[in-house]
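One such given next:

>
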Amino acid sequence: MSAAWTTSANEAREARKSDSLSSLLSSTSPTASAPHALVVGATSKPGPGFELCSSAAASIGTGALAAIESQLSGLRFDAALGETRTVFVDGQVVCVVGLGKTSTAEAARKAAAAAVSSLRSLTKDAKKAEGPFRVALQPLASDAKATAEGSILAAFKYTDNITEKKQQITPIVYAPGAGIETVNKWHEGVILAEAQNTARHLMETPANFLTPILFAQRAQSLLSPLPSVSVTVRDESWIASQKMGSFLSVARGSAEPPRFLEIKYQGNKSSSDFPIGLVGKGVTFDTGGISIKPSNDMALMKGDMGGAAVVVGAIEAIAKLGLPINVVACIPLTENMPSGTATKPGDVVFAMNGKSIEVVDTDAEGRLILADAINYTCKTFKPKSLIEFSTLTGAIDVALGYPYAGVFTTSDSLWEGLNSAGKSAGDKLWRMPMDMDAYKSQIKSDAADLKNYGGRSAGSCTAAVFLQEFVEEGVEFAHIDIAGVMKQSGSYGILPKGMTGRPVRAIVEYVKTEADSKSL
């Protein structure tokens, strides 16, 4: 968790009279003690060198400012974006982080993340420490929201099953004399980052601790207490009653029973419509089924419910922000396991919309469970737009790598909204072809209406075209393949190694823009 930490302008001025950084920080802390570290920003000069941000000079006192500059003068520091130097002033740890030459929101995110990451080495054994390691950050590039996002995302570390833990890092904002707008922006950034961390936490959880039933329970405990949110958990008999044969064909191989989550957020009490629908793939562990995967890296398949995790995180943020719009989310949850009862390659199953599907590859299971979830959401709630998230194909990783998630849609307006949201959130999206005429022939079956795998060629595109077959007329549909951005093997951008929870912040930004436009 993160806290806002501000003080009145008069209190800040009185504290600065002492010209003691430690006394200033102690006087402005909401607790009895000062933070463990302070982060201030610096920009690059046209030539070599740096300049501390004006906010630093205004808030930490001239003596402390001079001491920081004096110590940095003996170090090579040009304030390149993300470059950090740690100095000690009046017994206080100060991390100076570079913002480069441009002060943008993304620069603030990256700088805040770099600062927090560089301070991790100072954390102590949690058993010996008194509380978390508190890091106070000035709003970098004067952007409290982006600073909160970068610092909180960088501070996240999954340690649930580690017995010897280090201190948790808790970012707080250091903004003496700040107005309510700065505080509100910081809290907005906190909500967005913590929602993405919710998705990351779910994706990092080992599959034996997050079966379909346990995922449903976790989602219910996270979301049900939030304002305007209701969560309904459907069992296997309900799934069968809806004739979701495609979904059940995947679930039948596992001893763990499937679940179907239906989540409603009603931010617009004057309407019973749900103009935005979200669907997330919830395969809590994927062995590939009878078409079993190689053992190398199969452990990563605990994250194959990344689409479901993104949807849970997005609803969390949407509800906490109180966005004035209605959103419905549906999540099919199952494992994909080989067994004597598992679906076999060549079997034919029937989806909720009546279409028959030849299962030529049981490792192409995500599209089978999504087919019924997409069709159910369209028929039941009739959203104007439906956005689906799934770790669907390895082909998207080959095509786009880690930086971009792939978006497949025939709607130009939906793509433009998503692309704009991704840019605003600093979470990149790239449009891929959703061309039924070009790719549908690859999923034509001799034994059924469709087959679930069209071969290696254009694998991501044929998967998207398959999903489009289950979208009802009149619904604008976007499939976002997040397989390539599911996990990173090392630090990249604002995120450290591990599961990413992308693109939670982008989809929340999209929903926020739609709510603000009042066009739905």
About this structure: Confidence is low (pLDDT under 50) at residues 5-18.
